[in-house]
Amino acid sequence: MDRTVALLALFDRAYGGKPDAAVRAPGRVNLIGEHTDYNDGFCLPMAIERDVRIALRKREDRQVRVVSAEEAGGVDFALSGDIPKGTTPAQRWADYVKGCAQVLVQEGIALSGCDLALTGDVPLGSGLSSSAALEVATIHALLAASGASMPGARIATLAQRAENRYVGTNCGILDQLSSACGVLGQAMLMDCRTLALTPAPLPEGVAIVIADTGKRRGLVDSAYNERRAQCEAGARALGVSHLRDVSLHGLWSASQAGDLDELSRSRCEHVVAENGRTQAAYACLRAGDAVALGQLMDQSHADLRDKFAVTCAELDRMVTIARGLPGCLGSRMTGAGFGGCTVSLVETAAVDAFVPALTSAYRAAHPTMQPAVYVTRAAAGAGALPL
């Protein structure tokens, strides 16, 4: 069944009748530039063809009711400046919705109550920003129900605030800005300090292949917040507000002077080098140089594994297998790490053979895992969903 048709059917079962409108927000894949966003650095993401969709209908009171096609039961809450979190693990998904409502109320937005029905096909815990897609779609839905609107970058910053302050994940702006402001058919050089986005086309003759390892991680419970704290400590030791402002030479000089311990130096080295790789990767896109782009992706994974320590056996295996297959120009983990997905740059002519070969070899190495492989194009950012 078409996903929009299924969404309308869910809405009718839950509330009776038809919604007033519907919105969508995509997940994203980051081609390169990992753990640089919260360091005020550069990323190179694109929105993907998987998304969260929400059907909505305005209410005349201040209640919000939410049901999800993927979660049992529904959640109700009142719009206020202090919306309580869910009390059981089964209700945790709704905290992303509640957090978005809370930040909008705190911003002084005059929200109306509404009935919401949602569905998503961005795999959870995969590193493809399922949470950001839900947050951005929720803000679009709440604004639409209230007859309000705001620019995509503002929606992204409020969605990030909801995840930072309400959910408890100290994420950067990469995921939310990619979902809110993606450009159809384009990757984007993202400046996480200014929020400037510069589109760039993918090279001719290559495809983006996402491989889900089946290994799940929850960022709130992972070492993500620890890595961010290590970067912030490194920046303080180097006398800057963010690692974006550090050069490799400056990092080397500080290390020689004993200003950084070995662990801090290693973490900082990845971020500083990754910022340079990301800007070089953007230049590769502008030049149509897929081979050089793939080499930079390979280098990024090596640093994430050896210097930032956020890969795992499953991610490393998926990358190794991909690189050994014909037509693969480069492969790396994508997302925060500790599980989730890889992204590979593959010659278009090789994709049909690449996908089953990658899946088969990975299953042989990790028989208890359930991998999934997606070939994706760059999708548009969040907005209205035609009904």
The chain-level mean pLDDT equals 94
What is the gyration radius calculated from CA atoms? 21 Å
Question: Which percent bin holds the helix content?
Answer: 40-55%
> Using DSSP, what is the number of strands?
12
The major pleated sheet works out as:
8 strands, mixed
Shape: globular
Give the distance, in angstroms, between the N- and C-terminal Cα atoms.
Answer: 15 Å
Q: Which class do the helix and strand fractions yield?
A: alpha+beta
Q: From the 3D structure, determine the CATH topology of the domain at 3-197.
A: Ribosomal Protein S5, domain 2
Name the helix and strand elements from N-terminus to C-terminus, one letter apiece: HEEEEHEHHHEEEHHHHHEEHEE
How large a portion of the residues is in β-strands, by DSSP E?
A: 15-25%
Provide tags for this entry.
single chain; 387 residues; alpha+beta; Ribosomal Protein S5, domain 2; eight-stranded mixed sheet; four-stranded antiparallel sheet; 22% strand; globular
Describe the structure.
- With 387 residues, the chain is of the alpha+beta class.
- It has a domain at 3-197: Ribosomal Protein S5, domain 2, CATH 3.30.230.
- The protein has 11 helices and 12 strands.
- It has helices spanning 3-15, 94-106, 130-145, 152-167, 174-181, 224-238, 248-256, 262-287, 290-306, 313-323, 351-365; strands at 21-32, 42-58, 63-68, 74-78, 114-120, 186-191, 197-201, 206-212, 328-334, 341-347, 372-376, 383-384.
- β6 (186-191) and β7 form a beta hairpin.
- α10 (313-323) runs antiparallel to α11 (351-365).
- The longest helix is centred in the C-terminal third of the chain and has 26 residues, at 262-287.
- It is globular and about 65 Å long.
- The model has no long low-confidence stretch (mean pLDDT 94).
